[in-house]
Structures are given as structure tokens and as C-alpha cells.
Amino acid sequence: MESVPVRCPACRREHAYVTPVYPCPCGVPTAPPLLRGAPATPITHRTWNDDWVTVRCGSCGRHDQWPQPELCCPCGAVLRVPVRPVASAGHAAGAPGRPVRPAHIPLPRTAAAPRPAFRPLTIRTARDAVGAAALYLTWLGFREVTQPVTRPAFRIDLRAQGLIAQVDSTTRPTSLRDVECLWLNALNSSVSGVLFSLAGYTPDARERADGLRIPLFVLDLTGTPQPVNGAADELVSTGA
């Protein structure tokens, strides 16, 4: 897999970023070609249509749309990693006039046996973000994960046995107030709280979550949550 150095413009920390690999319908693993030397840019605003890149399969020549590579820095910034544009990118085979976006993207096993590989839900809408978080909580071992029919005023998107979760699908980083509101609601219900965000977290939100031991996850457009603090790493390691 291709790896490039990526420096966070916010904290200046350097990361070795490994290109995500996706399965082409022909069966050959395909990866977005990273643009070496180009700076990563913080994501401060998201649109559902602009976070995809065209990738050409080197085996069959097919063009498909895959999520734009992203990196979540420990400082809280979510970075867009530049990719080389595909010259004369045509339409995906088998779908004249429109690029094909996969319904889901099977990723390699990221947890120890016997937990099966997580099969994410590609995110295109805010509802998809909640659905992806629900799938992930179920994968972690939480039982009876449900979504309220109507979202309550205190913004609880998901419930499970012993757990409530909030999914922030807005285009701004999740704030300190969101963290504290979730913690208070979890405390009043005598359950644990988990936060998922599409745009990352403000520095003070991360600091407060660390102090309260609230797991924080960032959702990328493949629908795969990434842990961004110690509490989230511990939850992934131990499960529900």
C-alpha cells in the first residue's frame, strides 16, 4: 500500500498516511493515487457531493467514485489528503452517464478475533451517518441499538443497553457544549455516552471528553468510525 508523509497544518505533527484500498468490481484492490508533496488541508465545511474522488482501476481501466482520503490528527483536525486527478476520467463501467458509488466497502479486520470484520455503511446523508454509527455500536457488542422515531431535544440519536450516543453530522467540529450535554444526559440516565462526528472536534471538546472518559469517534465517508481519544481506543479494544 502507498504511504506518504502528511503534516497537519494546525499542530505541525507529521503522520505516515497509508492509502485506503477498495475492491474494484473486477476483484483487484484499488487505491486513490495520493499527490506527493501537496499539503493536506483541514476540513472546515463538508458537502455530500464534493467528498468523492474518481479512481481508475489499473487492471480493468474502470473508473469509480470512492471517498476522498482523510486523516484525523490527534489534535482534533480532520485533514483532506490530496489525490492525483485521473486524466480523462470517464464514467464507471456498466452505468453510462453516472459514476458508481459502492453501497458498502468491506475493510480489513481491525479487531481481535472472534469479533468479525466490520462492514460499514457508505455515508451520503445525515441519516446514513446515524445508521453507520448504529452498525458500529452493534459490531462493538452493544445490544438492542435503536434510533428514536423523533430526535429528542437533547440530541440523543441512538440508544442501546447501558448506552446513549450522539451523532454530529453537521459540517462544523463538535463543540465542548455537545460533549458536556451528552455527559449530563448519560449521567442522568445512569448509562455511558459515546460521540460520533463527521467534522472532528474542537480542542476544548477533546480535552473535556478526555477528562470525562467519553469515547470520541470520527466518521469518514466510508462509514468507518475512527477512535480519536484513549476512551475510544479502550472501547474498541474491549467491546461492550
Overall shape: it is: globular
CATH architecture call of the largest domain = 3-Layer(aba) Sandwich
| Rounded mean pLDDT score | 80
What is the beta-strand fraction? Answer: 15-25%
Identify low-pLDDT runs. Answer: 88-113
Strand order of the largest sheet: 10-11-12-13-14
Q: Please tally the β strands and state the result.
A: 14
Structural class of the helix and strand makeup? alpha+beta
- Element order: H for helix, E for strand: EEEEEEEEEHEEHEHEEH
Main sheet attributes: strand count, strand direction, barrel closure: 5 strands, mixed
The CATH topology of the largest domain comes to: Trna Endonuclease, Chain: A, domain 1
Q: What is the CATH first-level class name of the largest domain?
A: Alpha Beta
Global Rg: 18 Å
Share of helical residues: 10-25%
Distance between the termini: 32 Å
DSSP summary: helix tally: 4
Number of domains: 2
Organism: Streptomyces castrisilvae
Protein name: Restriction endonuclease type IV Mrr domain-containing protein
What does this molecule look like?
The protein is α+β, with helices and mostly antiparallel strands. It folds into two domains: 19-101, no CATH class; 126-238, Trna Endonuclease, Chain: A, domain 1, CATH 3.40.1350.10. Helices cover 20% and strands 22% of the residues. The strands form five sheets. It has a five-stranded mixed beta sheet, with helices on both faces. A three-stranded antiparallel beta sheet has the order 5-9-8, with no helix packed on it. Helix 3 links the parallel strand 12 and strand 13 (216-219). The model is unreliable at 88-113 (pLDDT under 50). It comes from Streptomyces castrisilvae. This is Restriction endonuclease type IV Mrr domain-containing protein.
